[in-house]
Amino acid sequence: MVSDSWAASGVTPVSAQVALARLRDGNHRFASGSTIQKTPFDQTRHSGPIADQEPFAIVLGCSDSRVPAEIVFDQGLGDLFVVRVAGNIAFASQIGSVELAAERFGARLVVVLGHSDCGAIAAALEQVEHPSHSRSPSLDKIIAYLQPTARAILALNSQPKRDDLMRLAVRANILTAMGHLKLGSNILTQLIENDGLIIVGAEYSLRTGKVRFLEDLQDSRECPLRIVVDNERKESIS
Ligand SMILES: [Zn+2]
């Protein structure tokens, strides 16, 4: 078991299963227009030491302005530890952030949250199809992370409709980030093996407001081949 401050506090972390149920319920409220959160500032809850925060889940999501995790899951201040980056990718800094929340604050559920019509994914697909001159080394790093997945999806679909291509690429990228979180972290691996941490993938629909968890997808055609993730694992994480 890893050493962590939440353990020293004597607080029992919310289980991954309970956390997942809370997120499912919260998104149902959000998508059906029956939210309960108004995010008021609660001084009694949030004025303590920094180690007192007890987020029940960690979300690695896209920076897209339309996909704020706290809102789409109808959660309040202190409920979620959210890491947002364009394309919900898992570079070292994102992995370290997830480790921090899992190890120090006791969260046992990690959700990689992608979304429909992701601009970062679209940019990666366009760069594969029509390579263009680089204007930013920093942006290049994000696109470079996304490109192997985009390339693999393009290779799988000889006559793709654009919508299908995007949907598959978004889901493949979620799986890729899940793989990189596991591959890139001994801390998370230990927590998975010994302390009930689970990593799940989910996709938010800009059209419906609903989050679909990838584990609910029954039809293999709805979810890209696992081989994409296997290929991604050969890529370095830096
Ligand atoms: Zn996005």
SSE blueprint:
Elements (H helix, E strand, L loop, with lengths): L4 H5 L6 H16 L11 H4 L10 E5 L7 H4 L7 E5 L7 H14 L3 E7 L3 H11 L7 H20 L5 H22 L2 H9 L3 E7 L6 E3 L12 H7 L6
Parallel strand pairs: 1-2, 1-3, 3-4
Antiparallel strand pairs: 4-5
Bound molecules: zinc ion.
Summary keywords:
Beta-carbonic Anhydrase, Chain A; alpha/beta; binds zinc ion; 238 residues; 5 strands; disordered C terminus; 5-stranded mixed beta sheet
Account of the 3D structure:
The protein is α/β, with parallel strands linked by helices and 238 residues long. It has one domain (11-36, 52-232): Beta-carbonic Anhydrase, Chain A. Helix content is 47%, strand content 11%. α7 (137-156) runs antiparallel to α10 (226-232) and α8 packs across α10. The site of zinc ion has 7 residues, from α6.
Distance between the termini: 26 Å
Radius of gyration over C-alpha positions, nearest whole angstrom: 18 Å
> Ranges with pLDDT <50 over ≥5 residues?
227-238
What is bound: which ligands?
zinc ion
CATH fold-level label: Beta-carbonic Anhydrase, Chain A
On the 0-100 scale, what is the average pLDDT?
86
- The second-level CATH architecture is 3-Layer(aba) Sandwich
| Domains (count) | 1
Structural class, please? alpha/beta
Q: Strands across the major sheet, in which order?
A: 2-1-3-4-5
CATH class: Alpha Beta
Largest sheet: 5 strands, mixed
- Going by CATH, the homologous superfamily would be Carbonic anhydrase
Regarding quaternary structure, what we see is single chain
| Topology pattern, helix = H, strand = E | HHHEHEHEHHHHEEH
Strand content: 5-15%
